[in-house]
Design brief:
heterodimer, A: mainly alpha, 2 strands, B: six-stranded mixed β-sheet, 10 helices
Chain lengths: ~300, ~270
């Protein structure tokens, strides 16, 4: 009965989220802003800057490779934002149910106390995966349509894996945080603040290395930075290899550091494996905290 | 807590038994200012005991803040008492909350339906949540929707329904699983006269079907019209409890209530 109720509630939560078109749109606002800024001027600035740097090194040409690199960087940033903002907006159903008293209706059903909180987690993950998969598909179409498809099959599966892990991690973290919110106003404020700063914090608008050292250090404590790092590694690897083999290996190595494909975390280099491990650990930590919070709330309310 | 191993095992005709229920809430600073107190905790229910029997309507009567809703929320397993216990159909609300939820239908006068869904979807959803078998659910939906005139609006989105219709939808959803005990917090609050009559008539119908109904109200006429037994709560304590005739002793419920209120509070209203 509890398993079936979990399925029913998860489906209900997901339906509520997906039927609210405005909510879905706003959940994709940050990735869309990255895209619009890139198309309007950021892309041109990045490409011109990198081409000028290449020229200073005495390397001519390379427009196609640099364009592919910048496109991949922008799409990695959009994907990373989506992995955070979509689960955040999907958490809105928790607040809505609480503020409208619907939680009480659900809690008087003869199902175990853990079912309703678990259903919120499941629906937030499902919403993140569903919308994230669509965004990822759009990213792949963008790369293919612009004639800059440099991804290997392993990179594609890497992107899918990064999506799944990032959505699970951010969902676990956000469900825990939103669990402390009671009012729609407070949640909206969180949504606006996070939606605004997330692009900067994970280096979607500009590389994190452009920020002062203390800010850079701060961003390494944000799980979203590791999400962005993973997507960059999988989406930009092909373009970076093309630059390395066709233009300049030294320049490619410089780009790898400058665009945060690896992090220098207090002297230790954080690569793809370490990024996966960090995200997995954060997911397990916050999943555990969610279970503990649900248990404590259940004990308090009965 | 009750100490015996199998309390409430033989509940017989006594479908609800509350014993020494006590519940306190922590007050925020703002609430302390509003309550004109420096004390950070408020006793909402203070040693409340009463019984309700099969096939009767029991009314909890009291002013706002007396502890009526808190009591009903304890009986509905939405909150846990600090001490004491209650049984619904023989099941402890603290130790067997899932079994209690199987037997009750809980409803408040607030409308809590998602605007995207239709009455039909919501009825099916809550029916499935209560484990009602599909065939029986379809049968019950047909019967209840026809009884309340919802059938013509079954596939209309909730946001397009009138307030009266929404209240009827809320009502049928709360009894989707044909509960033995219906717990109703302020059943006619905010309703127009026509919908209020539909609700009160239906409560009498449920009573005639042998269901037990617990309701909270501060409306004297509703108690006189519906209730077989009444418990008067003032400041979280049971000030009077018994059949309507016993409690009133020849007076109207309104006169009796204010007499008791003066006796407890030592002040006139």
């Amino acid at each position: 009965m509890n398993g079936y109720a979990l399925w029913l509630l998860t489906r209900r939560n997901l339906k509520i989220f997906l039927k609210d078109k405005a909510n879905v749109f706003f959940s994709l606002l940050a990735p869309l802003i990255v895209l619009v800024l890139y198309v309007l001027f950021l892309g041109r600035i990045q490409e011109d800057g990198l081409l000028a740097a290449l020229e200073e090194m005495g390397v001519a040409g390379g427009e196609a490779e640099i364009s592919a690199f910048c496109n991949s960087w922008m799409l990695a940033g959009s994907m990373s934002c989506a992995c955070i903002t979509v689960p955040l907006c999907a958490c809105g159903i928790m607040i809505q149910d609480r503020s409208r008293g619907i939680s009480a209706d659900l809690r008087v059903s003869p199902v175990a106390g853990w079912v309703t909180p678990a259903s919120y987690c499941c629906s937030v993950v499902a919403a993140g995966l569903a919308i994230g998969a669509i965004v990822l598909g759009v990213c792949f179409i963008w790369l293919a349509a612009s004639g800059m498809w440099l991804l290997s099959v392993a990179d594609v599966f890497g992107c899918i894996g990064a999506l799944a892990l990032s959505v699970v991690t951010s969902s676990a973290l956000l469900v825990f945080i939103v669990g402390f919110f009671r009012s729609q106003g407070a949640f909206t404020a969180l949504n606006i603040i996070l939606g605004t700063v997330v692009g900067f914090l994970i280096g979607a608008y500009m590389p994190i290395t452009y920020f002062p050292d203390p800010v850079q250090t701060f961003t390494y404590f944000i799980p979203g930075s590791y999400t962005a790092g993973l997507f960059r590694n999988f989406m930009m690897r092909g373009a970076l290899e093309a630059i390395s083999t066709g233009l300049s290996p030294v320049f490619a190595e410089g780009l790898r550091t400058e665009f945060s494909l690896t992090f220098d975390f207090f002297g230790a280099e954080v690569g793809v494996d370490a990024m996966f491990i960090v995200l997995a650990c954060v997911a397990v930590l916050f999943a555990g905290l969610n279970v503990l919070a649900a248990f404590l709330r259940g004990r308090r309310k009965g | 807590m009750l100490s015996t191993e199998t309390p409430f095992s033989d509940f017989g005709e006594e479908v609800v038994r509350a014993e020494n229920l006590r519940k306190t809430f922590t007050l925020s600073r703002k609430q302390q200012r509003l309550e004109h107190t420096d004390f950070p905790r408020k006793v909402a229910v203070d040693g409340l005991s009463f019984s309700a029997y099969r096939g009767e309507i029991y009314g909890l009567l009291g002013p706002n803040g007396a502890g009526k809703t808190t009591t009903l929320r304890i009986l509905s397993t939405l909150i846990r008492p600090d001490s004491g216990d209650a049984a619904v159909c023989g099941h402890s609300v603290t130790r067997e909350p899932q079994k209690v939820r199987d037997t009750i239908g809980f409803m408040t006068s607030e409308l809590k339906l998602e605007s995207f869904f239709t009455p039909s979807y919501l009825f099916d959803f809550f029916g499935a949540m209560h484990g009602v078998e599909k065939g029986a659910l379809a049968e019950r939906k047909k019967e209840l929707f026809a009884r309340f005139g919802i059938d013509r609006f079954a596939e209309v989105r909730v946001r397009d329904l009138s307030t009266g219709m929404l209240q009827k939808v809320s009502l049928v959803i709360s009894i989707v699983h044909d509960p033995s005990v219906v717990i109703f917090d302020e059943p006619t609050n905010g309703l127009d006269v026509l919908t209020a009559k539909v609700v009160t008539d239906f409560l009498l119908e449920l009573k005639a079907m042998g269901k037990s109904i617990l309701l909270s109200t501060h409306i004297f006429s509703l108690v006189e019209k519906l209730c077989d037994r009444v418990g008067i709560i003032i400041d979280g304590k049971m000030a009077a409890d018994g059949t309507l005739a016993d409690v009133c002793g020849g007076m109207s419920i309104e006169e009796k209530f204010f007499e008791i209120y003066r006796g407890v509070k030592g002040e006139t209203v």
